[in-house]
Structures are given as C-alpha cells and as structure tokens.
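Supplementary Methods S3. Input chains for the assembly prediction are listed below.
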Amino acid sequence: MAQEPLLEPERFGHRYAASGEAAPRAAELEALGSDYSATGYTTREQADGLGRLLALGPASVLVDIGAGCGWPGLYLATAFGCSVISVDPVIEGARAALERIDSDGLGPRALALLGTGEHLPIRPGSIDAVVHADVMC
Amino acid sequence: MLGASHRVLRPAGRLAFHTIELPPGLARAKRRRAISIGPPAVTVRTSYLGLLQSAGFIEVDAVDLTAEYLATQHRWLAATLRHEEGLRGALGDDAVGAGIERRQRTVNAIEEGLLLRTLYTATR
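Predicted structure tokens for the full assembly:
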C-alpha cells in the first residue's frame, strides 16, 4: 500500500509560507483557537492543559519538537512565561517561528532551530519539559 | 524521537505529547482502511506506553482524546468550507480540494472507531 512520506516538506512548507494569509488564519482560529499556521488538532484549551501538566513557568525550559511555526511551543512561552526551543525540520516553519519570536518579543527566551526529533542539537539533561503535538502520526 | 527526548530531559523532566493511533485489535480489513486514511506514522504497531517505558520513562500515562479529536475535525471541516474561496486563493485548488476530502474521510473513520487520539505523559 502506498504511504505518504513521514516528512512532507512541500506540503508543510507551502502551508507555512502562506502563514500571513487571511483565510488560513481565520480557518485555524475557528478550528483550534490558535494563529500559528497550525494544521493539526491541538486546540488552545489542550495547549493550556499541556502547559499545566508540564508545570511550565518562568524557570522552565521547554523543547517543542515538530513545532512548525510555533504551535504550541511559542504560545506556551507567551502564556506560561517559560523559555522555549522550537524545533522543526522544514525551513519555512523554522523561519516563520523566528519571525514570530521577533514579533512577540520572545527573543531573550526563545530559539527556533532546524532539526528533527531524532537528532536534537541540545545538551543532554538540560531541559525541563518536552512537548510535541501530532508529530508521531 | 522518544529516546532523544529522554536524553535531553533532566532527571524528573516531563514529556507530554498528542498522537493519533489505531485502536488495538482491529480486524485486518479495518486496519488497512485506517492506515490508508490516518496520518503517515499511524502504522506504529507497538503501544506508546511500551515505547515510552523502553525509552526509560517512568510515570507513563495515557488519556483518550478521541471525542475532542472528532469535534476538532468537524470544526476544521466547517471552517475550511466557510473559507474555501480564500483558502483556494492562498493554498491552491488541489491542496484545498484534497484537504476537504481527507478531513471528511477522517471524520468518517473516527466515527467508525478506526482512529484514536491520545495524550501521553511521562517523566524521565
């Protein structure tokens, strides 16, 4: 049976590149309550639940794997005050996340890296919490 | 990916993730249909509870979010149809047409019990 590749850079890259467009933003807001060019199923309410489950706060460092343009990691940094490393394998996603870090004023406590969940360029034992939303599916 | 997550976490650090998966014990034909509709890695055969424990995590827990997943798919479908013209302009006819079809098939599959969505949490 033919399967889609696990990474779909063309599909996601195209979507991320359209992140400033009005219709995708409106549809995402209605479906998830978010505005990060997210295409999955983690609602804003569920993202808040993740922040509480992970006990995020100003002293926490969070890694979001497969973060795309920053959902939910950059949102959690804004909502809970934690630091965040946003990791995505698609260049358009990482670039959009960097722009969002800049526009949201998260610069001192947020990074966006190009990378995969298998090869995290992060020092072992240095992170308080890891999150990913519908990446392993 | 779970192994890499375990490696970067400090002792007592926490992992939380959402994932879409197949219900255990699906008959072969239903399993084939679920795999054809679900996202690419939905074919994973081993339970995530076992994978997390194998990666060294403790305090592993799972919460079923399938009802919320179905509601979110319905909202995505309604929002996509409501903004279809603008989405076609932004993303292209092919992408939007395929997306609507995929979401409708996914709604049907969830309603048939072919796909689950789960929240997993674990501690290093």
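Chain A has one domain: 8-131. Chain A is about 35% helix and 15% strand.
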